[in-house]
């Protein structure tokens, strides 16, 4: 991903509730957006294939980008032509997270530091809660988040909106008053369906997501400007609509 790839979606018109500062909360995906865990997920998929005496040659792993463990198990089972237990993926994934060095993605710490001073932050992830918490802890990002919502706690994973709606409920904010940060098609679709404004930092080169703003890194200047982190003046509904054109 280039250093400064930035574009606003054409004709973006977002509903904004309330007259106060916008946004009143920020909700983040985790893997591939905040944390560089691609090697851990690949290790989990390779481990599953190896346990079945198979390989990943026929599997396009980009299709699993942002997938929940349940969805990944189904796709792997179809590709490998044999049953794949979710528990196996979760076990190998957690082992990989604990064994490998996990680092924050570019710009993550800076953006989180700026946002945490202004509003509550939450995680809405398709990854199992234990995996999310272990990764955040390793990268020393866990202290930024008051709430972690994972798909294994709810009936439907992304691209369904459930994780975002639940995060908004726990934060006590209307989805229209929150911003979502995503790196995958499934995640962006979930945030869009929940009614949040969507900022995308695609983790797969060339992938176009359904987002209001697409950037190359989390602390891109347009993200900071959109969220009122570069200017001292108050951010409200009118100024946000103006920023999105």
What do these coordinates show?
By secondary structure, the chain is α/β, with parallel strands linked by helices. The protein has nine helices and seven strands, in the order ββααααβαβαβαββαα. It has helices at 38-51, 69-80, 86-99, 108-116, 129-138, 162-171, 185-194, 221-226, 237-244, and strands spanning 7-8, 25-28, 121-125, 147-150, 178-182, 197-200, 213-214. A seven-stranded mixed β-sheet has the order 1-7-6-5-2-3-4, sandwiched between helices. The radius of gyration is 18 Å and the shape is globular. The protein starts with 6 loop residues before the first strand and ends with a helix. The model is unreliable at 1-6 and 10-19 (pLDDT under 50).
Quick overview:
With 245 residues, the chain is an alpha/beta fold. 38% of the residues lie in helices and 11% in strands. Strand 3, helix 5 and strand 4 form a beta-alpha-beta unit.
List keywords for this structure.
disordered N terminus; seven-stranded mixed beta sheet; 11% strand; 245 residues; 7 strands
The fraction of residues in strands falls at 5-15%
Low-pLDDT segments, ≥5 res: 1-6, 10-19
Number of strands: 7
Distance between the termini: 25 Å
Shape: globular
Fraction of residues in H or I helices: 25-40%
Helical run tally = 9
């Amino acid at each position: 991903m280039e250093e400064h790839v930035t574009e606003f979606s054409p004709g973006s018109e977002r509903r904004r509730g309330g007259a106060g500062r916008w946004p009143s909360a920020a909700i983040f995906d985790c893997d591939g957006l905040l944390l560089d865990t691609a090697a851990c997920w690949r290790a989990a998929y390779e481990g599953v294939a190896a346990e079945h005496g198979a390989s990943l040659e026929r599997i396009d792993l980009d299709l699993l980008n942002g997938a929940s463990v349940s969805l990944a198990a189904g796709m792997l089972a179809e590709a490998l032509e044999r049953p794949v237990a979710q528990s196996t993926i979760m076990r190998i994934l957690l082992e990989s997270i604990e064994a490998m060095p996990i680092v924050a993605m570019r710009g993550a710490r800076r953006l989180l530091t700026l946002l945490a001073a202004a509003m509550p932050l939450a995680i809405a992830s398709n990854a199992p809660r234990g995996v999310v918490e272990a990764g955040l802890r390793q990268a020393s990002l866990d202290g930024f988040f008051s709430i972690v919502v994972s798909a294994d706690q709810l009936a439907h994973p992304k691209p369904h909106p459930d994780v975002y709606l639940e995060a908004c409920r726990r934060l006590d904010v209307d989805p229209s008053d929150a911003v979502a940060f995503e790196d995958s098609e499934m995640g962006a679709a979930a945030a869009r369906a929940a009614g949040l404004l969507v900022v995308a930092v695609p983790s797969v080169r060339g992938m176009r997501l359904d987002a209001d703003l697409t950037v190359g890194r989390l602390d891109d200047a347009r993200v900071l400007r959109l969220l009122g982190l570069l200017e001292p003046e108050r951010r409200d509904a009118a100024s946000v609509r103006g920023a999105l054109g």
